[in-house]
What we know:
Blueprint: E1 7-12, H1 16-27, E2 32-38, H2 41-51, E3 55-59, H3 67-77, E4 82-87, H4 91-102, E5 107-110, H5 119-141, E6 159-166, E7 172-177, H6 181-190, E8 200-204, H7 210-220, E9 225-228, E10 239-242, E11 248-254, E12 257-263, H8 275-286, E13 290-294, H9 303-311, E14 315-319, H10 329-335, E15 341-343, H11 345-357, E16 363-369
Helix pairs in contact: 2-3, 6-11, 8-9
Amino acid sequence: MNANPKIRVLVVDDSAVVCRAVNDLLSKDPNLEVVATASNGKIALDNINQLSPDAVVLDVEMPELNGIETLKVIRRHYSSIAVIMFSSLTVRSANATFDALALGADDYVTKPSSLGGSAGQVAAVGAELIAKIKLHIFRRTNSKSAASPLVTTSRGPATAATVATVRKDVDVVVIGVSTGGPNALAELMLSIPGDLPAPILIVQHMPPVFTKILSQRLNANSRVRVEEACPGDRLEAGRAFIAPGNYHMAVHRSGLMVNVQMNQNPPENFCRPSADVLFRSAAAVYGSGTLAVVMTGMGRDGLCGCQAVRSCNGQVVVQDEASSVVWGMPGFVARAGLADAVVPLAELGGEITRRVRKPCRSVKARTIAL
Length: 370
């Protein structure tokens, strides 16, 4: 028998069918309890006042009081509650979801086109909701470990060999990010100079529509041109490309030109796009001129890709734990001894810029953990 109290969840959606479906999905987990459902934000706030839930699954578009206005009140008066936005795959809903994340929503999950759809699709939504509710409740109730130093080299445990490596200038920056990514990327891109002498490729775990909106929002506040990638796009310094939702992004060299490629090969680490796919591709094309950056995110996507980058003498930098919403992806890389540096988000743009602009063509000795 589980001695821990159940996580109390309030489900808010103007569709009775959706409320019932989400209630059924969440109730399958013995650690969760749906204490109430509400059809709009006004009713939801009354329920919060009376029932004190631990988490709220909040629809974006509702009558009387929509998700954004409801979130503002929750953050103003009930800051300890975890809020997961439940968003439709539309441009309007995607924009509202990004607004919600900027206002302090913990995360989001996208609704399938119909909760009466395939059993597998509905079950996947339920699993994602449950995982994210638990993740953010845990994050809010457990203090993070001490902050990592500004720049900490991490070469792994005992070393058994030392090899001479040639590391050339950085020719490409590849970034993998997931949970907490939109806000983290917004901060990062503000600190990247427009004349960065290398292209940037980004994998943010997001569905279609959302990646397009993300690229537009980042581009509006970035000195680097940011756009959702299309097949055949040419990589150029001072441009950043975001992998479109549901497509892996890779790079291909043809003569002196390097272009973007897309595919819908099976997901890796349950993700498509996957950072591992991008990182491996960059390592194969650019070799030691690759700089891989792993930012906040749940899971371990990027770990195998960073191994490929390090195997060709490229560089790896990860976001530190204290500034990450979830230290899953960067934590796996750091603990594997693959990171050249562990850096707070506030210093990450400067670290990337320094490494891209710093000539490093000299032969260096590097130890390899066995």
